[in-house]
């Protein structure tokens, strides 16, 4: 049976490979090319919208009969447009121009759908107001002496060798400023060689050098950036568009860039052999800009969160289980409420509550917020598993232990707990593996784990195959290796388990 399963998996991967690199698509309109906005006003046209942007309202009003689909990354929409799954999506003209250069399978219609002014955003605090005023002074000065025009020519130009940020000369005499940014908005903000770069990041470092600050940059999705300015970041830098509605919650500097809004659509087919495409895809995903290091960094973060959260959850869950075993109704009630709340709250919501509310005013690193969130969640499930396992042990075992002179603590630790472990360790292993896979959502709270690093790479390469397949394989290997550790503990607890025979079947 295992041999056939392996063959099935390999066949599925082969089909995925062929579909990914031959441009096959299941969309009826996969071959349609659009040359004007009027052509896209037909009923049922599928248009992508970047979540958290102003393009929602513009798309609805301009294409009232279109069907809107929402995404969290421009790269995903660009890829779907190239495959014909989307007719197009709105974006800022500089981003569209950069995408066309980087990913020739798409282009954009040279018809403006309005103007958009991009600016640095600031929290509505005394510090935020101070930074806003200083940034306005700085922008005025570099606009006057031509520096801003020079920065524009560097980051919107084609010479990659010039796209280097001078990070030296930061004195920090006036302290540190917390900056939130998305690294999926090239050329405004993106990641190069493991560091955040781009047009607005260049301006940011020049500003910090001029006014004596040190930027502490955190990355997040665009959807989380503005909420983060309410209580976690001092300022945001990520081609943020100025709108009246946003002004109700945050404040803006003077515009650092004036641009238009255009529609990205499918370009002419780029024909290439499958092996050439594979080779180019591999080079872009792993070799270029040493992106393999990003995958290793993300892997280390995932392992850290998984192991530490499991350790925390195990200790906390053990304590909760002991409380539940007492005769105190208050303790029993507290545990019941805790378990029900944690099991009933989606882990993404829990993480965001901890990151943007509970620990918003602290300097606690996002990784530790992730550890706490997953640890609290794991504790609720482990408490239930352990309690069930203990209750499965016959009370006579405790009575026998006490009869031969064991204390209550000794009888629990040496007699009851080992037998209970036989019952709950299989469930523990399953929950542990589930936790590892659930860590893939920590990107919502500005943590660059394995999945987030994969998203960042896709935002640069516009190629989904190698980043996603690599991520899936790595998660499988992590889960498999760590499950072996738990299995070793199971055998340690019940040595006969390894060689147990049931009805002539030898269990391995």
Can you walk me through this structure?
- This protein is α/β, with parallel strands linked by helices.
- Helices cover 56% and strands 14% of the residues.
- The strands form three sheets. Strands 1, 2, 3, 4, 5, 6, 10, 11, 12 and 13 form a ten-stranded mixed β-sheet that branches.
- A hairpin with a 2-residue loop joins strand 8 and strand 9.
- It is elongated.
- Residues 1-30 have low confidence and may be disordered.
Radius of gyration: 27 Å
Structural class: alpha/beta
Count of runs of 4 or more consecutive helical residues:
18
Helix content: 55-70%
Give the DSSP E fraction (strand runs of 2 or more residues). 5-15%
Report the span from N to C terminus. 16 Å
- Name the average pLDDT: 85
Tally of strands: 15
List the uncertain runs. 1-30
What is the 3D shape?
A: elongated
How would you characterize the largest beta sheet?
10 strands, mixed
Q: What distinguishing features does this structure have?
A:
alpha/beta, 14% strand
Give the structure's gist in a few sentences.
The chain has 508 residues and is of the alpha/beta class.
């Amino acid at each position: 049976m295992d041999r056939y399963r392996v063959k099935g998996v390999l066949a599925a991967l082969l089909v995925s490979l062929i579909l990914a690199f031959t441009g096959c698509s299941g969309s009826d309109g996969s071959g349609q090319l659009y040359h004007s906005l009027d052509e896209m006003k037909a009923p049922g046209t599928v248009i992508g919208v970047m979540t958290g942007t102003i393009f929602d309202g513009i798309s609805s009003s301009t294409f009232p009969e279109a069907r809107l689909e929402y995404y969290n990354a421009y790269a995903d929409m660009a890829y779907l447009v190239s495959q014909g799954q989307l007719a197009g999506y709105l974006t800022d003209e500089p981003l569209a121009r950069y995408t066309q250069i980087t990913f020739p399978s798409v282009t954009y219609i040279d018809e403006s759908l309005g103007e958009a002014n991009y600016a640095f955003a600031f929290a509505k605090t005394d510090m935020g107001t101070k930074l806003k005023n200083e940034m306005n002074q700085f922008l005025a000065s570099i606009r006057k002496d031509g520096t801003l025009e020079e920065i524009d020519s560097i980051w919107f130009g084609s010479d990659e060798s010039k796209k280097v940020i001078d990070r030296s000369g930061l004195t920090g005499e006036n302290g540190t400023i917390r900056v939130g940014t998305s690294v999926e908005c090239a050329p405004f903000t993106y990641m190069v060689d493991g560091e955040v770069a781009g047009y607005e990041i260049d301006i940011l470092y020049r500003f910090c050098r001029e006014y004596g600050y040190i930027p502490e940059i955190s990355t997040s999705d665009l959807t989380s950036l503005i909420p983060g300015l309410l209580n976690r970041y001092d300022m945001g830098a990520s081609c943020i568009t100025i709108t009246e509605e946003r002004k109700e919650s945050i404040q803006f500097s003077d515009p650092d860039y004036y641009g238009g809004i255009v529609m990205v659509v499918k370009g002419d087919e780029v024909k290439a052999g499958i092996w050439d495409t594979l080779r180019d895809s591999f080079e872009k995903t792993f070799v270029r800009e040493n992106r393999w290091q990003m995958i290793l960094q993300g892997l280390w973060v995932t392992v850290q969160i998984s192991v530490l959260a499991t350790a925390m959850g195990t200790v906390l869950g053990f304590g909760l289980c002991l409380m539940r075993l007492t005769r105190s109704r208050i303790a029993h009630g507290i545990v019941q409420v805790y378990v029900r709340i944690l099991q009933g709250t989606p882990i993404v919501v829990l993480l965001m509550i901890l990151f943007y509310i509970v620990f918003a005013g602290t300097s606690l690193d996002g990784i530790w917020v992730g550890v706490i969130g997953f640890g609290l969640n794991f504790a609720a499930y482990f408490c239930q598993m352990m309690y069930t396992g203990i209750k499965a042990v016959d009370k006579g075992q405790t009575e026998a232990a006490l009869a031969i002179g064991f204390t209550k603590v000794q009888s629990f630790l040496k007699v009851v707990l080992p037998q209970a472990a036989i019952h709950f360790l299989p469930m523990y292993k399953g929950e542990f593996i589930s936790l590892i896979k659930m860590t893939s959502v920590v990107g919502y709270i500005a943590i660059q784990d394995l999945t987030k690093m994969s998203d960042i790479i896709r935002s640069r390469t516009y190629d989904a195959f190698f980043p996603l397949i690599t991520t899936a394989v790595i998660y499988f290997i992590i889960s498999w290796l760590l499950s072996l550790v738990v299995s070793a503990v199971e055998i340690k607890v019940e040595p006969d388990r390894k060689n147990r025979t049931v009805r002539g079947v030898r269990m391995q």
